[in-house]
């Protein structure tokens, strides 16, 4: 099972990848995590990547592609993988296609996690990560005390929660802009290949996981383990025919959910108001692509 999770920063790619990883026993490959590890180790690659990361911009393609090539060559990726935060632009998506063609391991599915702009900002501001095991918590959905009371599997001590340096307001705005400009075109790229499903990634985490499982199931995958928090069932080999189904219409309509003005939504978020849904893009493109995908 080879999956890409596509979505803006804060859409829950990391959280859902971790759950899917447990259920399917395949690794989560997060370029953000790989880059942060390189920065923390002070490697040459880390030094080169740091400036772009601190500014909320994309790290140079050749650096990221080098990391991905190395990571996908590791033995645990042979049974499959979940790509989280990669690809992030068309050049990376094309390079991934070529790499996977060489490995004779094409993608099975690309799932877009759709979240309203205001909700993204709210989630990012509440996001905390365990400095030791990397598990992601959110203060809004999982109060700090609760997560600190849980034990870190790495250290055996309570999780040590930190806020990522690039989760500050200015950088978040730039990351969302970069997503809209460079990553969003991948929705069309993968839809045209019949690989795309879009799910509503707002609401309870468990509910989003259920939608994700359903989307993968609809792409011809067996249903993931019933409980994503416990060990899951074994995966069978994918049936590719299912990949031609079109994503739900609502999703095609609001692909550009990061276009809202940050200041207004930020204010709403900080007051704890529910975020309003961004006005959707025209659904015509989605229907056209659906016809193309069905051909
Ligand atoms: P993430 O943890 O996925 O939000 O990524 C954090 C930061 O790492 C991003 O804002 C980028 O600066 C960098 N980054 C992560 N993945 C990529 C990628 N595929 N291409 C370029 N830069 C990336």
Describe the 3D structure.
The chain has a single domain, classed as Rossmann fold, CATH 3.40.50.300. 46% of the residues lie in helices and 11% in strands. The chain is built from 13 helices and eight strands. The longest helix is centred in the middle third of the chain and has 15 residues. The structure holds adenosine monophosphate. The site of adenosine monophosphate has 17 residues, from helix 2 and helix 3.
Mean pLDDT: 78
- What is the count of DSSP helices, taking H or I runs of 4+ residues? 13
Largest sheet: 5 strands, parallel
The total strand number stands at 8
Query: Which bin fits the share of residues in helices?
Result: 40-55%
Q: Can you list the ligands bound to this structure?
A: adenosine monophosphate
The CATH architecture can be named as 3-Layer(aba) Sandwich
What name goes with the CATH superfamily?
P-loop containing nucleotide triphosphate hydrolases
The multimeric state of the shown protein is single chain
Q: Beta-strand percentage?
A: 5-15%
Describe the global form.
globular
List low-pLDDT spans: 222-295
Number of domains: 1
Output the strand order for the largest sheet.
2-3-1-4-8
CATH topology: Rossmann fold
Topology order in helix (H) and strand (E) letters: EHEHHHEHEHEEHEHHEHHHH
Rg from alpha-carbon coordinates: 18 Å
For the record, what CATH class applies?
Alpha Beta
> What class, by secondary structure content?
alpha/beta
Gap from first CA to last CA? 25 Å
Write the topology of this structure.
Blueprint: E1 2-6, H1 13-24, E2 28-30, H2 31-41, H3 44-54, H4 61-72, E3 81-84, H5 90-102, E4 109-114, H6 117-126, E5 127-130, E6 136-138, H7 144-149, E7 161-162, H8 169-183, H9 185-192, E8 196-200, H10 205-218, H11 249-253, H12 262-270, H13 284-294
Parallel strand pairs: 1-3, 1-4, 2-3, 4-8
Antiparallel strand pairs: 5-6, 5-7
This protein binds adenosine monophosphate.
């Amino acid at each position: 099972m080879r999956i890409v999770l596509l979505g803006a920063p804060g859409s829950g790619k990391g959280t859902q990848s971790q759950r899917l990883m447990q259920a399917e026993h395949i690794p989560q490959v997060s370029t953000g995590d790989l880059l942060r590890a390189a920065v923390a180790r002070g490697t040459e690659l880390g030094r080169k990547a740091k400036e772009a990361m601190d500014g909320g911009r994309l790290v140079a393609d050749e650096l990221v592609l080098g990391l991905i090539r190395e990571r996908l060559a590791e033995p645990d990726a042979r049974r499959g993988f979940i790509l989280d935060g990669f690809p992030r632009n068309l050049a990376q998506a094309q390079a991934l296609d070529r790499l996977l063609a060489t490995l004779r391991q094409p993608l099975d599915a690309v799932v877009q996690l759709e979240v309203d702009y205001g909700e993204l900002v709210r989630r990012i501001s509440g996001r905390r990560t365990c400095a030791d095991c990397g598990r992601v918590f959110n203060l809004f959905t999982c109060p700090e005390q609760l997560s600190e009371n849980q034990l870190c599997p790495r250290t055996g001590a309570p999780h040590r929660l930190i806020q990522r340096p690039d989760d500050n307001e200015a950088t978040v705005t730039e990351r969302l802009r970069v997503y809209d400009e460079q990553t969003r075109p991948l929705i069309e790229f993968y839809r045209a290949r019949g690989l795309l499903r879009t799910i509503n990634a707002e609401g309870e985490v468990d509910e989003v996981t259920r939608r994700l499982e359903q989307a993968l199931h609809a792409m011809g995958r067996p249903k993931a383990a019933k409980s994503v928090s416990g060990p899951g069932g074994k995966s069978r080999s994918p049936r590719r025919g299912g990949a031609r189904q079109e994503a739900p219409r609502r999703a095609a309509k609001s692909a550009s959910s990061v276009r809202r003005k940050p200041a207004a939504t930020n204010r709403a978020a900080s007051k704890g108001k529910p975020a309003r849904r961004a006005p959707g893009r025209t659904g015509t493109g989605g229907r056209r692509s659906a016809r193309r995908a069905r051909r």
